[in-house]
Amino acid sequence: MDTARRPHLRPGMTAMLRHTLMGLILAAGMLLQSGCGGGGTQTGTLVQNVSIIVANYLVLDLASGDVEARSDVPNLATSSEYRRTKMVFKAISAGANGIGQAPGSFSAQADESPGTANVRKYYIAVFEMTQAQWQVLAGTTPWTLVNPTSVVGGIINSPEAPAFDIRQASVTQTLASASSRLGVVLDLPTDDQWEYACRAGGAGIFCWGSSRSDLVARTYAQVGETAAGATGPLIVGSLSPNGYGLFDMHGNVWEMTKSGTMRGGSWSDTLTQARSANKVTLDPQLAHALVGMRLVLVP
Fold it and tell me: Are 253 and 223 in contact (CB under 8 A)?
């Protein structure tokens, strides 16, 4: 930079700026701590924006668009509002991680060549989109049209079960409308974002490693081998989360991506199909009783 163009700082001004910035960061930390148990919309001021940037979680009110920055969500497992009227997003830090699967390894496919996902920080939903949440955003109940209902058992009209049987074209339209209305950006994850989140920093075939034991799998995944003959997905968050605190990344329902694939397998598919690297092309104009979604949020 040309010396003549440099801004002139009076003696002590640098220290003052540093002190102001530290004050904002400390204030953001206090806001996060005060938001641990709930309450406190974090929007509208510089301090509040800083709190959102450093938050571990963002909690979106699907009706009002209010976003709460949280350091933790201690009642995530017990409060139904996070499966009905609000949506919780977990911060995934920027970084790089291996994706795909080596040729010749267990069930590896031609489109799963090993690579690296380089992601910027993003927020991804801890749960799959539920029926209640979809109704708040779209006002429709497409899963009730599945015939015969024996295909999905008693999960029809179960508010905290995954929404399914929705065309990706409809999802895209609904999210665009909701984003405009709520003042935030809701979208589907890309392939890289989905697999990066699923693996949670690991290099195994699944989020828990490479064990194919049914005993291990049933801790994390509702798939054909662990469903014990039951039909339909489980209530979201019924099993253990992966290392990033995300539930049902394997099994339950396939999850759409913005890249035009579906990932993770479903309750009716084998553990093989639920592998982290497996991807299946999705026709955006077709709805399927085994396919749902998980969203990302750009505050």
Answer: no
Judge if the upstream peptide bond of residue 148 is cis by omega within 30 degrees of 0. yes
* Region of residue 50 (phi > 0: left; psi between -120 and 50: alpha; otherwise: beta): alpha
CB count in 10 Å sphere of residue 243 = 11
Q: Flag whether pLDDT at 10 surpasses 90.
A: no
The most distant pair of C-alpha atoms in the chain lies apart, rounded to whole Å, by 77
Between 127 and 29, residue with greater pLDDT: 127
Nearest CA among 60, 6, 54, 64 for reference residue 33:
54
Q: What is the pTM of this model?
A: 0.83
As a CATH number, domain 85-298 is 3.90.1580.10
SS (H, E, C) 4-63: HHCCCCCCCHHHHHHHHHHHHHHHHHHHHHHCCCCCCCCCCCHHHHHHHHHCCEEEEECC
> At 46, is the pLDDT very low, low, confident or very high (cuts 50, 70, 90)?
low
- Residue that has been written with the tokens 């014990």 in this structure: 228
